Amino acid sequence: MTREQLAAALASHNGAWAREARAVLLGGAKFEWLSEGRKTVSARILWDTWHWRLEGLMEAGISPTTGVAEVVDALRDAGDAQIHMAMILGPDRARTVFLSADLGVCVACT
What pTM does this model have? Predict the structure, then answer.
């Protein structure tokens, strides 16, 4: 995945977190491809992990990272869709990006 492909996928999402992530990416932030072996993962599996993480934070009284609640909702809505993941390493924080199997659409972003 190239910087341009990731930026285009982020542009497909109308959420504030995706716009912010795209701006950070285009500002020169490093990014990493997280889909091990270029394999996708079911959104349902990712939802289970991220939902559990969000519930644990809430139960502990810890505020979740920006966009986590929206990611949980988007992954739930994506059902069994296959997802790739990338991370943008900005100067202030890392942002996780969830992408469609064809890499053309940003499904969610923290």
Answer: 0.91
